[in-house]
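Instructor's aside before we start: the two examples that follow are unrelated to each other. I chose them only because their records fit on one page, so don't look for a connection. First example below.
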Amino acid sequence: MAFVTRLTDLMAIKHPIVLAPMGGVAGGRLAAAVTRAGGLGMLGPGYADEAWIAREFEEAKGERVGIGFIAWDLARAPRRLDVALERGPAAIMFSFGDPAPFVDVVRRSGAKLLLQVQTVQAAREAALLGADIVVAQGTEAGGHGAARALFSLLPAVVDAVHPIPVVAAGGVCDGRGLAAALTLGACGALTGTRFYATDESLAPAEAKGRVVRGTGDHTVRTRVFDIARRLDWPAPFTGRALQNDFTRRWHGREPELAADAAVFDSYAKASQTGDFDTAVVWAGEGIDLVRDIGPASRVVDDLVVEAEASIARSAGFVAPVTG
């Protein structure tokens, strides 16, 4: 059985599953694998340059994939969007910052426009900008986000932007999460952390292992990794990551961290050498449900099968009214 939603119709995909464009993790192999399995694969360049974008589109080997950008960072180097559009992506997604300067060129290209939001007001603004799909992101998500949890945010966004399709993001790591998102009015789910721990992910093996071994209780929303990387992320965004020695030392002491220049070099070295006691592993609260590392195609299949089973079980809770 396949789910038929406005997302699957609009994007011409089999399953209502979108790969989150995780920066430096969602490369061409992973995006292509998700697309081949029936979802929509998305590249995640993060802060990467034009060469990375060109290389990872090539790595996708002609599969129909999209790409996501950090809007405030894209303004620093807008040529990256041109490089992506030259390769005919299925979709362009913008998150964090003002996407307005880039909307017209995306729409003229024929790519579908996905705008990720963290508030109902931002969802209304996305609708006015002409979003084809609005992505409602809850605070459960790994990586950067804001303050509202998905369970209450999602239906409010669905109501605010109807009839624009809404995709749920934040904590969806198994089919029960996908089923819940559909029940709350979404037409699909954008999933990151579960795909982080896959064979095709660009994440280092040690980082994948930490995701598998971690739990949602071991994550924290923090600014310390952005400060250490000298990235001036705008308010109100923080990032959800696995706790490690670095967060235990610096979380809650952000002004001191920002003033300690020696930390910047040591942090950069830790990132380069894969020392994840210091370096960041972005992960969402749903990592309790990430129990192994395997092919992305199996993750897509499992999400669909589990969602179908969850919906079938839920139907049994409703008794017919008689009399």
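Example two begins here.
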Amino acid sequence: MMTYDVIVLGGGAAGFFAALAAKRAHPDAKVAILEKTAVLLSKVRVSGGGRCNVTHACFDPTLLVKNYPRGSKELIGPFHRFGPQQTVEWFQERGVELKTEDDGRMFPITDNSETIIDCLVKEAKKLGVEIFFRERIETIEKTENGFTLVGRENSIFQANKLILATGSQADGFAFAKHLGHTIQEPVPSLFTFNVPNSPLHELSGISFESVQIALKGSSFSQTGPLLITHFGFSGPAALKLSAFAARPLNEKNYEVELLIDWLPHLSLEKVHQILLSLKQKSPQKSLFSENPFHLPKRFWKLKLGPIDEKKLNDISLKELNTLSQQLHQDPYQVKGKTTHKEEFVTCGGINLKEVNFKTMESKLCPGLYFAGEILDIDGITGGFNFQNAWTTGFIAGSS
């Protein structure tokens, strides 16, 4: 039997950071990470197309939490204690400089996720954190002095304190449930929409800087960049909508109607007024050549349909009215979803009411702590999920 003061289950971003924080706060403590695969920090490696989107340059906790569909209220306190500013400083102190891109995402200046992995592994070696690979734990039991963990190969570990940082893995949820916790059922978050019968398929690759995309019959809507793809819709607006409406979308089995407002900065009346005034001002010109809203040409041509080459004088008021309506509430039938690259995120996990966010300790099982995606917390794309991992890992380990 191997005995440790702290055992961290899971060698991802949250688990690693928790182990480092525990060892830094208590240098004499025996700390170990148990990773069930042969690879550490796999999500760090693929994040941001292999560049690692470490965090986001949003340094005000009250603004930062708005990027979390679940967990926003609970994270305010933790972000005041260890937020993006502290993350930047932590890596800086260890020789890793981060840069901020135009959209606020922060990456290592090397544009290589291995820089982040090397930094974390080096720190673990320096502090003396033990790491076990291919250590598949089968059972965890609460004992008088802590926890007993039994592995598949009959390895036995004893821990005074246990940190579960197993991400959205089913075994992690099963352990938490066995130790008394409630699990909010995990469902996908951060995905793109499949629209098999979309008339826009031929426009694949065209993007818009700002549209509003809404779930019909609900209060869920997002405004931002949208990308037309060969299967439907992607881009920040679609991904944000998928995150905030993750549960309703799952309940409807991803068969919903989306309404797209292609001109969210203009009211329906204003759009109609612009078209009418153009008809009066340039009656001999075609609506296609005028393109008053500066929409992508191929998209504009498709939207105009049979009236694209008509002179404005020959377009009826009814046709202009129909066009105005279509530019504001354009319906698309979604049938299914597609995972966003390798950066698969779920919503669901440990019920947040059962966790003390000052320490990340379980309110139901003393000595048990949580960090990262095992909690019912998820952020939108842009470095927010990693920031949750660093923050909750730091607090769990320090506590």
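The chain is about 35% helix and 25% strand.
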